[in-house]
Amino acid sequence: MAVVLAIGATTAVRRSMPERGGELQVAGLGAGVTVLRDDQGVPQVYADSATDLFMAQGFVQAQDRFFQMDYRRHVTAGRLAELVGGSATAVQADKVIRTLGWRRVAEQELPRLSSTTRRYLQAYADGVNAYVAGRSPSQLGVEYAVLGLRLPDYRVEEWTAVDSLAWLKAMAWDLKSNYDAELTRARLSSTLSDRRVDKLFPGYPFDRHQPIVTAADSAANTEADAAADAETDAETGAAADTGSAGSASRVPALTAPATTRSSGNESSRTESSSRTDSWSATDPAAADALRSAGRALDAVPALLGRGSDLGSNAWVVSGRFTTTGRPLLANDPHLALQAPSTWYQMGLHCRTTSADCPFDVTGFTFAGLPGVVIGHNAHVAWGFTNLAPDVTDLYLERVVGGQVERDGGIEPLTTRTETIRVRGGADVPLTVRSTRHGPILSDVVPSVREAGREPQGEDQDGTTYDVALSWTALTPGRTADAIFALDQADGWDQFRAAAALFDVPAQNLVYADVDGNIGYQAPGRVPVRGASDGRRPVPGWDSQYDWTGYVPFAQMPSVKNPPEGFVVTANQAVTAGDKPFLTTDWAYGYRSQRIRDLLQAALRRGKVGPADMAAIQRDTRNLMAPTLVPLLLRTDLRRDPFTREAQQLLRGWDFSQPPDSAAAAYYNAVWSNLLRIGFDDELGEGLAAEGGERWFEVVTQLLPRRSDAWWDDKATPGAVENRDEIVRRAMVAARIDLTRALGKDVSRWQWGRLHRLELRSPVLGGDEVPRPVRSLFDLGPYQVGGGSGAVNALTWNAGRDYDVTAGPSMRMVVDVGDFDRSTWVNLTGVSGHPYDSHYDDQVGAWRDGRGYPWPFSEAAAKGAADDEQRLVPRS
Description:
It is globular and about 85 Å long. About 60% of the residues are buried. It is an alpha+beta fold. The model is unreliable at about 220-280 and about 450-460 (pLDDT under 50). Helix 10 packs antiparallel against helix 15 (about 285-300), helix 22 crosses helix 26 and helix 23 packs across helix 26.
């Protein structure tokens, strides 16, 4: 049967291949459009009007990636079961996303956007529909044929503007910050003291890792901007903190919520947040409800990635310090890795730029979303990393029947009903309840309701604990306006004006322009909290924990032309202060500091060139190893020659992690076992140490404490272990593990044999699809280097195995002095059709850290063209 399926799927592959040459008639076009494709099939689109340009973008993306687009819109609408059938996973995902209401918010956003943006969105939808019209599902994607073998009669719906907008909610969901850390702290506080929990969430190491906006940037501020900050503070009712401000850079002030920034290895806490912590730790029913809520949230498909897997690198260097004499900008967002890739490369060009057709832009976008998200136009270049402010809060609600407690009184819940349609199965009804704080998650999974019963000792009046989610993305915003505004920006002021519209997801934006300016801007809708610091769930029945507003854009951190001559962002803390208060859950700055160190080393040798930027992106140095390896080498293994043989691999190791490194293989196995033996015995189910930058800092802070309670293995009652014993046991276990996996001869060990990347279809990559069929879609496994917390952040989860869970989803280096000298590479290829030559033709270059030429000018695009297609109005 599997062979029959494979033959049928292979036949369907041929039917779904798009035409990329010649002339095609397209209904709705106003004039002819030219599409030039280079050797990698990347399209550069040329049109006479903006409407035709975005219509052509929709048409071309549908040619290459329609099934990916259709899958994404089903997920974001909570309609996945309509596409793939009634598996428990699909129905559960639909329930959670319907509860959150992603598409409902997108529908509310559409009329709030500018009329121009709405016109572009509709033109894009018209282009998609022009390609889809008259084609059967199997002609649009082989995946439909595979699904149709067991679930026939699928009908492709027309694309709409809301389908595109709903994707922004998926972006915002995966790139939001800290609800997982919030839940983890709450769960741990039910069994551990706050002091011990705080050691697992240490403060940011400002003494070792610079924030994005440095002290030198702040020192360059001028009194003029300080006065502007004070004026803004007065307008918003916040206490003025003039600090230092400047025209060269500006870091406006905002009175922080009731919290203080932590430092060292203990987190500070105000009286109000301590009350919340105590309440969370002593209510077992509330802790059970939160645990169940976490399981419900985990049911949402990770379209871009999840939690600590996500990161990114972006930095920009002033022309004062580059070999080109103009700025250089690099970016590589770290997301989930799959086939086809997350990003879609393309250029959008008005043949003559004007007010009516203002686009001449190229870069990375998402199939299903018009415009370019990351890239450059003829004037400016920009890159993104995840700012990751705390934009979510979990509220424990006391609910009795259809009412919820509020400040000693009660108020009604709001409810709505949804119907989840299941392909090949019966409909599933869903009732969604919400409080003023947001949707209640406990309606999604029955175990949440069961676990949320009131704790013993309370009044037996039917009161339950329920969990509501506040999230900034559930308020309609204007991010779609921001994308088109970024694509048109011709200087710093327009760039910042576009950033001001970028509500969610909040990103770090780095900037360069043809006039030689560089900069940084933090945009996004970030809540101002009352009594909470956002670190733990809070009681919804007490209004002091409500949000009181949002941080004004004028007060978000920003810097133009910093004295240092470069800006580095890698998800680290934005500023050394807490004004404005963004979060306490930053990445810990290991990657960002390494990038800074490499830039400074390059500048000591001379000036930075494009090759230097690309080399930094390839850097595989393990950034925890310099701290831990000296202790591993001091560990006395004279009575254990078997383990000592592996220990010797670490002598002289330069801490790099190429695929062929035996030392990297052993070190990472030791690291995994150290976390398992030292921490997992007390973390509980589902909370195993995953080994990223937070764990780098946890272990760094604990290593000087030989007898800290965290070193004691609770799995050995009657014995109290110290640091040295745990380290020795981890080294022994790692030697045994690798002997089983890689053989007894340590010289033959290789990191890449453990650290492998498989690229799977999110729909057809599961075990329910026969392997011969999966092989049509899946790529790999590839042996790769890098690792968690490295600049080349090919992340793996130390609590599971060594397989790659996320990494650089693309890489780009932009030369603002000559855009045609820029380079880019995608993870897989531009096509979503298996057996298309462009399905996986970029994997090799991506794996090796190489980039392809990135043509921008029309002359360069024509010189690189491998295919030319003419789209003309249907007569």
